[in-house]
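Most newcomers find our protein records easier to grasp once they have seen one. There is nothing in a record beyond a sequence line and a structure line. Getting from the letters to the tokens is the skill we practise here. An example says more than a description, so a record of this kind follows:
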Amino acid sequence: MKKYVKMFTEVRIMVGKKIKYYRLRKGLTSEQLAKEVGCTKAAISLYESEEREPNKEICKTIATVLGVPWVELISRSNNKLVFDHISFRKKQKASKKDIELLKMEIEEKCADRISLMNIVGLINFKTFKPKKLSYDCSASENAKIIRSLLGLPSSGPIYSVTNILEHAGIIVLSFECTDEIDGINGLVNGIPYIFFNSKNRTIERQRFTIVHETCHLFFNDSEGNKTEKEIEKYINQVAGNVLIPDDDIYSIFGKTNRNITIYLRDNVAKQYKIAPSCLLNRLLEAGVITEIYHKNYFIYLNRNCGRKAEKTLLDPIKDSEEPTIFTQYVYLALSEELISASRAAEFLHVPLYDVMQNMRVE
């Protein structure tokens, strides 16, 4: 009897979280959902706070209003995960609701990944433990250490940041969310994760966000006397150094250069898969170009639809940074008959038909 009660409680908790999660995704208030469902706002609050369990019929009605299969509200979920959401980029501009929804989305996806790792026996295979670095060292010096800890050479382009991180044991997540958030990093049961927003972002901007969030994992923001603005500026410098180190800068451009052509600038930016603006920032930090040269470029950008509209130089498919290892593990588990096709479809949030088609052998 005790075992049954425990399982029942876990499902009830899961239902409450799921209702709130899908309500926020739908953009409904508790009052609006209650009106659509035909119950009181207090009842919805009790369901979401896990103080009352909705019956099967109420679950089905709520699911219909939220536009999800009702079984999704009672699907399996890991309630034993401990999350530490460390820092957001542009947190100050995002609403409390946006941040809450993003956290819930991240927790859902992390739970799926850890469940799958348990199934395929990889939960203890490799967990990346970031070494804590000091803000007192130069950005260039810390960038070299980070590249080394990630198994990268001290110089040269990084062709797929996501691939490097995933194989190092870091969970990488990507999906669309509010424009006000670029990325977030944190820990789930001690395993580091990185999230980057893929909505209306160039590949170059996504790559910079991924590296920026990765760099945050190596520092303790609560230590020292730096302000949040100073920390972000320093982390930006470290991230830029990780993507294109000083040695590479000097090797290509020399110690000083007053005649950098658009052709050279864009070709180097494309080779290192960074935005021309990022390259210009690095050249200024390295002392290769003057403040005037740097300023004139950003004046040009602002006159041409603003800095955020800087065009990509990369191929959105060939150079994509979308995480792939989770999908690979899902099909590995399916091929080894560790999970069913329906469970694979549930993990990937795709129709069962798509999974069956992908498992076809010509």
